[in-house]
């Protein structure tokens, strides 16, 4: 089947090249058209909740490589997802990753929010669609645009960990708190503090200039060639991005990330009634990196644990074994050092970068699609036909060089008043492999096919009728392991038939019916097909006679829609409707049966049968308003939505089935059933104002969303009423109510017994919610909304100020109402991990009245390190995402030359965070967040 599709696609592509013709310009103004499912609609006739961004215009005033640039600042209801749910990304109508397209390649983006807008795309689009439409050629002489940018990336902040001497001092305190002997003697702490010998008394700072650059740089170039005549339109985009790395140690000095892309398309007329379009894109990415996990280990490796390098000039020359190690080592660093380590640290990030080799990650993406459009007006006026086929193929592989290396654990002593290494213990072996090898090798492939009939007519001047009948499907196959075996038990597929019928009277009254028949192989036979209907109504109130004297309203349209979509996105796997038994006795998945005193083992049931398993549904009501006010000074778009997701899967518990259906934690006869229900509702809006003040032209935009969710139905059984998730927010966050620190043993004895390990003075005290005298999991309550899908309130701002040939653009986004926890290793200093500066506020007998941190402990801190109000904070913030200043040279500057225009600009990304928790939000445990400052130019020829 795959070969057949490829053959058809190549044949059609070849035909289009031999029969090049012209594409007639559409009658409507291109800027007034909105890309919708399988077509376009004039902006004035749009009745669905679809917001658009003209990316080709946006990047004239902002520089970015991201195809989704500015969405959070420009579109209400978008917070990285749509109305709190992850959307399907389509590029030119084909499922593709947004990262495979750069902003310079994009013409526009349609964010399709309501169910009625996406119903024609079927099951996998049931949570919304982001439709990216790439640029195409125009009916004009050939034009060439060139753009170049260069920037630097400066870290905002680094974690602040204690130096070795402070760490050892406080770890000794933790030992005393736990009733243990101190680990570090005063002499070692003193010598470490004085910096007597950093090789014997190490003080590792991962964030020092020895390992990190102050900034790293990036650069990119883009070229565009486009044009056309009455016969052919063409467009070509090619570009390259390059960046190096913040880490500069060992092989990381050579690290880079490079991407090269080419995208092109041709629009042709094969005959007066037949048109063809071909699109092709190639993306190559190459990455080079040293081995090891530098940033990950940076947050855990104790600063005093060992010295990464051991100087050979401090080694006893009279010890033959030491000299033998030096002579035979494959990794004598700079001719001066052996690699340090311990028996428990036979590898480390420093040695990995110096001796373990490198990895070259490579990806090759090929995207091709072709379509034919036929005007069938000779058979029936207004009738047309279009068919498309695409195939995408991406391969990922790595070329690597790997070496096993030895590390050495020293024994230090004083020899003639000087520190000397008198013995070395070798761990691991030096093994050299001079050849590169191919590491992981994976691929993915997506094939898409569609065919549609469209009908559009106007009768008696006022009656506008349109319809679409479409068949659409795609299939994605992945191979994601190093053995070149497919990781897909079943290919990801989507197939559906769709029908849309719309009518409007004089662009005043609108009605639209859309529906799709979908199919899913995840369900049992007899349950695999379903019909998803959607109805939309619209009314342009501003055209009514009773509005004639309302001068401040230029245009006012209200819309409403109802839809019931069926989807299998929330069905995690295939064959969940089939009962299964385990075959793995050695993994404890067998159950024992007894007949008297004799017995044996039988395979454990993993789930029961459910031949009635069905689709999950999204039932939604939406009402919207579009208005232009005050002589087009203000534009408003707003939507209220209420959607209920029903039939979500759960593996039935004892609240539904008898308890004996669940034999053990590894064995159950409970089937997967359609049971749980969710509700999401909210209000999104986008408001923009444009006004001229003399030479100044100012545009200000403000958008946002008020969002809430609720679990309407849950398969659950709890001891306490407040534990039930039903009627609570889907993103409700649960934890303990902290009542401060235990001040002494009497305080502990008089309080409810806490069950999270041994509790001592200085530990956190939790509230006994159910008054049973015991603090356990039953005492967790809802502490707030986490906002993992969408915060209670999100908003975006954008500002454009033009003055003569200068333009200033700024955009930002923010949120309020969500909570989170400071629960990373920076705050939860477990066991022997390194201490951050936060522990200076630790509880002690002397600081008990002012302490801001629990007592130190050498254990995992099971009592203290739990989500509670002690660690909770509010995620309220505003981020200034980007600012750019642009100067466009006057048109007559290059008069008489081949240069049509020139712009220069400078700006920055990720510049500012305004929040009470700014320091925490700008802190990353690992690779740091960076501010980007850039400058560039754009020239047209």
UniProtKB/TrEMBL annotation:
<dbReference type="InterPro" id="IPR023997">
    <property type="entry name" value="TonB-dep_OMP_SusC/RagA_CS"/>
</dbReference>
<dbReference type="Pfam" id="PF07715">
    <property type="entry name" value="Plug"/>
</dbReference>
<dbReference type="InterPro" id="IPR023996">
    <property type="entry name" value="TonB-dep_OMP_SusC/RagA"/>
</dbReference>
<keyword id="KW-0732">Signal</keyword>
<dbReference type="InterPro" id="IPR012910">
    <property type="entry name" value="Plug_dom"/>
</dbReference>
<feature type="signal peptide">
    <location>
        <begin position="1"/>
        <end position="25"/>
    </location>
</feature>
<protein>
    <submittedName>
        <fullName>SusC/RagA family TonB-linked outer membrane protein</fullName>
    </submittedName>
</protein>
<dbReference type="InterPro" id="IPR037066">
    <property type="entry name" value="Plug_dom_sf"/>
</dbReference>
<feature type="domain" description="TonB-dependent receptor plug">
    <location>
        <begin position="75"/>
        <end position="129"/>
    </location>
</feature>
